[in-house]
Amino acid sequence: MSGETRFVAYDAVDYPVQFDAYVATTRSEEFISNITSFQGGNTYNNFDTDPNLYINS
User: Fold this and answer.
1) Contact present, 55 and 28 (Cβ < 8 Å)
2) Tell me: the pLDDT tens digits for 5-57?
């Protein structure tokens, strides 16, 4: 993000619909599958948590 004046992390209570990003607490944490993008209704497939692709043990 560049030139922004604030960052809004996902929060199920305060910011369940419009937010900038989901902040994971661990590298392998998966994004909640029932959350969709505000524009377009897309879901995230958690491709980057596949241990065969990206996670080094």
Assistant:
1) yes
2) 888 888 888 988 888 888 888 878 888 878 888 888 888 888 777 777 765 65
DSSP of 8-57: -B-BTTTBSSS-SB---SSTTPPPPTT---TTT------GGG-TTTT---
- The domains of the chain are located at 25-57
pTM above 0.85, yes or no: no
**Burial track 19-36 (b if 16+ CB lie within 10 A, e otherwise):** beeeeeeeeeeeeeeebe
